[in-house]
Amino acid sequence: MSRARASIDLPEVRISQAEALWYDHTRWQGFVDGLHHVELVEGGYPESGGRVVWASHPGGRGRVIERVLSYEPRVGQTLEVEDEKTTGVQRVAFSAIDAGVRIALELEYAIRSPTLMTALSDFFFIRRAQTDSLRRTLLRFARELHDELHPPL
């Protein structure tokens, strides 16, 4: 399996504030990279056993299925994720830092139909694209949370 990681520090934000937005699937369109719309939420999401199905923008990941493997309030969540081309495990972790919160995302993934070129393609292109996607999600999340906590006058 390959791994992509990204994190962001959000000063003057409490874990509870970050977590409330992160798990609000009705707001994901504003920050989850590539998400077009959520199709289905079931099983008590974000709790263990919950499931979310969402569709990407055209030309993206297609239909994405996320199953919650574990969830601990104020700590994080582990998901089993799959789309048309990959399967994997994604983790989000919330940790307190001086006067704020750090959010860390990690994706361990495998290509569904590997070829002889898969390892090279992953090393040079896919892993970077996965990491960039995690970063874009976190940056958009930070903006969305900032706008929520500091609305314009």
Tell me what the structure shows.
This protein has one domain (2-149): Alpha-D-Glucose-1,6-Bisphosphate, Chain A, domain 4. The termini are far apart. The protein has 153 residues and is an alpha+beta fold. It has two helices and seven strands. It has a seven-stranded antiparallel sheet with strand order 1-7-6-5-4-3-2, covered by helices on one side.
Average predicted confidence as pLDDT = 95
The CATH homologous superfamily is termed: START domain
Largest sheet: 7 strands, antiparallel
Structural shape: globular
Strand-residue proportion: 35-45%
Main sheet: strand order:
1-7-6-5-4-3-2
Give the helices and strands, then pairings.
Elements: E1 2-11, H1 15-22, E2 35-42, E3 51-56, E4 63-72, E5 76-82, E6 86-97, E7 100-111, H2 118-149
Antiparallel strand pairs: 1-7, 2-3, 3-4, 4-5, 5-6, 6-7
Main attributes of the structure:
single chain, 153 residues, Alpha-D-Glucose-1,6-Bisphosphate, Chain A, domain 4, 26% helix, globular
